Automatic annotation (TrEMBL), chain A:
PANTHER family: ANION TRANSPORTER ATPASE-RELATED, ARSENICAL PUMP-DRIVING ATPASE ARSENITE-TRANSLOCATING ATPASE
One function term, GO molecular function aspect: ATP binding
Gene3D superfamilies cross-referenced by the UniProt entry: P-loop containing nucleotide triphosphate hydrolases
UniProt cross-references to Pfam families, sorted A to Z: ArsA_ATPase
Ranges for domain ArsA/GET3 Anion-transporting ATPase-like: 21-290
Name the record gives this protein: ArsA/GET3 Anion-transporting ATPase-like domain-containing protein
Composition bias, Low complexity: 326-336, 354-370
Chain intervals for the UniProt region annotation (Disordered): 306-381
InterPro entries: ArsA/GET3_ATPase-like, ATPase_ArsA/GET3, P-loop_NTPase
UniProtKB/TrEMBL annotation, chain B:
Superkingdom in the source lineage: Bacteria
InterPro entries in the record: ArsA/GET3_ATPase-like, ATPase_ArsA/GET3, P-loop_NTPase
Cited PANTHER family: ARSENICAL PUMP-DRIVING ATPASE ARSENITE-TRANSLOCATING ATPASE, ATPASE RV3679-RELATED
Protein name: Putative ATPase
Annotated GO MF terms: ATP binding; ATP hydrolysis activity
UniProt cross-references to Pfam families, sorted A to Z: ArsA_ATPase (PF02374)
Record-annotated ArsA/GET3 Anion-transporting ATPase-like domain positions: 5-180
Length: 451, 326
């Protein structure tokens, strides 16, 4: 394992244990493990004694099921089977429902009904690019103001760019606040205002053109919608601004999650730069799904060369046996050495196991070339097998080198960023034990323990 | 082979890459394919290492055997203005609309309207004929939105029905739907052999079918090479004495069986065990995909990243697996 001199390890436990840490935001590009990291941090913090709520967005189905949050009721549920003194609550964001709740909370009954049934509202609440980001912020604000948890962990939507999370609320805000919306609202208010004459010229041209394009009914729907939402615009913006400020406050920590791949780390670098520009506190980078090897001393090249020589031997049994014996001679003989195995390469059975799977001769290339014996090759010989293990290792070492290279490019650009590496588990993470395993790896500050 | 090939899939699985490889594969041998992009991200330009594409069809690649691939990045704003110009000769009013943010408005507040414009442009290219009455393109390949949004995106008719009950937008939506729901269209889903992308693919197939949209192929991308086969995994992990492996490593010159060579055995077997677990998981996901009775294709993970050469490799791979324009 290499030592990385310039790099600070990220101390996850210190972050989670510090009572001053009140919000942790996990961000990064899609599919890198934000949701998994958020859930793992929540579980770890709870098991270390804190009262935690995790706001997840689009969790994998089985993960949601294992946490008991697969029903979409948009409120936190206590997660069972959490060890230790703390509590873990979790929820999955329902963006449409969150939007509906805002409308219901901020408009009187008639107006709320008019908004909720308007086709434009329905389209906006279900599909506007950025609605999910905005609603995540909104929900974060709500959870924070309830003051029932001493730590909130927030996952972010699976957007293509990590920055969307910061920008979307503003985009929605400025959109709802835009010139056109003002214009469209004008007819609903005609009469009252000074200066409307000027606007009306623009207006008639506008409504004319839009009306042509959209049809009159559609335009009227837009106007009704906009007028109905009017009273809420200020509220939207105010809350978005307040949440934004919350993200800049001292109790907040951002964790940027990335996989050791070029695209993901490029996004991570953008995000790091953006956080700095916006005075948002970055705790560090979580490098997720990193590969390691217990045999890192054996290079890909040597492993491949050895694999090739084994495969050659396997094709020339006589010489092979002698070489093998010569090679092993320095070592005390093992239990199987002089059993028929090594000499009898074509048989492929070290230790003379003559097993029942001989009816499935599925490696023709290994045995086909020379003497076809009765005793056909059913599985792989030890040489083939070992060669396979070595090829697997070579592949792993190449992957390690690529991952290290992309990671080093990031650290060269941002040496100030603390990093925690999380090993790639062979399978997906979909239960509390899996999350604990991720949590343990997150908290392991040296990289000596990479699996 | 359908003339409109829509490529969707979970984010990051390789939609753009596969769409481009598919365009190359289908253009092979003198055909002409149009690759369209609808999300304004310039993914095609990046892939083909060219400068950003304008809102204009231009040739970006030559396929093996003389075929041509054209590309178009459809910009919803420009498509809307185009559309207004075409049907209403709006001229300066169109520009005023843009300045006021009306176009922004129409394309954000009502994603359905934007989608009508995007799919409408693609369908127009599908149906376009030259002077001699031949189709301008043999096929159009769309790098489409991800699985989570694809049904809504293509099902513009339903989406728009609630918004525009009559009028030109309504008519446009109907015309688009006639193409999309016909055998002229085929929606392919790109996935990885991992749980979440496969789940999304399965959900996507169900949704598309429920909306009567024609599902085409499932393309498994970034498939890792099979380095140990079943027999080897079985033999290696369960039956072969560790000492035999240690000796073989020694024989291959990697250090003594009781020394350096021997110390390799545990980590190598641990890696093989991880590999076996992943292999089993991948097998299970393959089985899930196979249940849907769709043609399955597999594209290899190109270990050194993907460049233009790699794209041609993937195209050749698709052709070998029977994806061609005949
Ligand atoms: N077969 C492959 N081998 C190696 N790398 C690949 C392969 N296919 C795709 N990639 C790489 O994977 C990454 C994602 O691919 P791509 O951009 O095509 O995905 P996408 O589904 O279009 O993503 P998005 O959802 O962001 O639009 C790219 O870096 C691409 O080069
Ligand atoms: N360290 C890891 N090892 C193995 N699988 C992982 C790891 N981290 C995440 N995954 C898996 O990757 C998939 C995507 O993770 P997820 O957390 O949902 O990503 P995101 O929220 O960033 O989109 C999930 O199936 C998850 O189980
Ligand atoms: Mg997620
Ligand atoms: Mg793409």
């Amino acid at each position: 394992m290499s030592v990385d001199p310039a790099r600070d390890p990220l101390d996850v436990d210190a972050l989670l244990d510090d009572p001053k840490t009140r919000i942790v935001v996990c961000c990064g590009s899609g599919g890198v493990g934000k949701t998994t990291t958020a859930a793992a941090l929540g579980l770890r913090a709870a098991e270390r004694g804190r009262t935690v709520v995790v706001l997840t967005i689009d969790p994998a189905r089985r993960l949601a099921q294992s946490m008991g949050i697969d029903s979409l009721d948009n409120v936190p549920r206590r997660v069972k089977d959490v060890h230790g003194g703390g509590e873990l609550h979790a929820m999955m964001l329902d963006m449409k429902r969150t939007f509906d709740e805002i409308v219901e909370a901020h408009a009187d009954e008639d107006r709320a009904r008019a908004i909720l049934s308007n086709p434009f509202y329905q389209s906006l609440s279900a599909g506007f690019a950025g609605t999910q980001e905005y609603m995540a912020m909104e929900k974060l604000g709500q959870l924070r103001s309830r003051d029932e948890w001493d730590l909130i962990i927030v996952d972010t939507p699976p957007s293509r760019s990590a920055l969307d999370f910061l920008d979307a609320p503003k985009r929605l805000g400025s959109f709802l606040d835009g010139k056109l919306i003002r214009l469209l609202m004008a007819p609903a208010k005609v009469g009252g205002r000074a200066g409307m004459k000027f606007l009306n010229v623009g207006m008639s041209m506008m409504t004319g053109a839009l009306g042509k394009l959209l049809g009159g009914q559609l335009l009227r729907d837009v106007q009704t919608f906009v007028a109905a939402m009017d009273t809420m615009f200020g509220g939207f913006r105010k809350r978005a601004d307040a949440t934004y400020r919350l993200l800049q406050a001292p109790g907040t920590a951002f964790l940027v999650v990335a996989s050791p791949e070029r695209d993901a780390l490029r996004e991570a670098a953008y995000f790091v730069e953006r956080l700095a520009a916006d005075d948002m506190p970055l705790a560090g980078l979580v490098l997720n799904r990193v590969h390691g090897s217990g045999a890192a001393g054996l290079s890909a090249e040597r492993a491949l060369a050895a694999a090739e020589s084994l495969e050659e031997r396997n094709e020339e049994p006589a010489e092979d046996a002698e070489d093998a014996e010569a090679g092993a001679a320095a070592e005390p003989a093992g239990e199987n050495l002089d059993a028929s195995g090594i000499v009898d390469q074509e048989g492929g059975k070290v230790g003379g196991r003559n097993s029942s799977e001989s009816e499935a001769p599925n490696s023709p290339e290994a045995s086909g070339s020379s003497l076809p014996t009765e005793d056909t090759d059913s599985g792989a010989s030890v040489e083939q097998l070992t060669a396979g293990l070595l090829r697997l290792h070579a592949e792993r070492m190449r992957l390690l080198a690529r991952e290290r290279h992309t990671r080093d490019r990031f650290t060269a650009l941002h040496p100030e960023v603390a990093v925690a590496e999380v090993a790639a588990l062979p399978g997906d993470v979909h239960d509390l034990d899996g999350l604990r395993a991720i949590g343990d790896r997150l908290a392991q500050t040296s990289d000596g323990g990479r699996a | 082979m359908s003339r409109l090939q829509v490529v969707s899939g979970k984010g990051g699985t390789g939609k753009t890459t596969v769409a481009a490889a598919l365009a190359l594969a289908l253009a092979t041998e003198g055909k002409r394919a149009l690759l369209v992009e609808v999300e304004g991200r310039q993914g095609i330009a990046q892939l083909f290492e060219t400068e950003a594409l304008p809102y204009e069809e231009r040739k970006i690649a030559v396929a093996p055997g003389g075929g041509e691939v054209y590309a178009l990045a459809i910009d919803p704003e420009l498509a809307l203005l185009d559309y207004l110009q075409m049907f209403y000769k709006l001229g300066s009013a169109g520009r005023a609309l843009k300045k006021l943010g009306a176009v922004d408005f129409a394309t954000t507040i009502a994603p359905g309207l934007r989608d009508v414009l995007l799919t409408g442009k693609a369908c127009e290219a599908v149906r376009r004929k030259d002077k001699r009455g031949r189709f301008a393109y043999d096929c159009v390949i769309m790098d489409a939105p991800p699985t989570g949004r694809i049904t809504r995106f293509l099902n513009v008719n339903d989406e728009v029905a609630g918004l525009a009950k009559i009028g030109p937008i309504h008519n446009q939506a109907q015309a688009v739907m006639r193409v999309l729901k016909s055998p002229e269209t085929s929606v392919h889903l790109v996935t990885l052999l991992e749980e979440m992308p496969v789940q999304e693919t399965v959900d996507g197939i169900t949704e598309l079918r429920a909306a009567q949209l024609p599902v085409g192929r499932v393309i498994v991308n970034m498939v890792r090479p099979a380095l140990l086969d079943e027999a080897e995994l079985e033999l290696g992990l369960e039956r072969t004495p560790r000492t035999a492996i240690a000796k073989t490593l020694a024989a291959a010159g990697l250090g003594g069986a009781r020394g350096a060579g021997g110390r390799l055995v545990d980590p190598l077997l641990a890696q093989a065990a991880e590999y076996a677990e992943r292999y089993a998981l991948e097998g299970a996901q393959r089985a899930v995909l196979a249940e849907h009775g769709l043609p399955l294709h597999e594209l290899p993970l190109l270990a050194d990243g993907l460049d233009l050469g790699g794209l041609y490799e993937l195209a050749a791979e698709l052709r070998e697996q029977g994806v061609r324009n005949s």
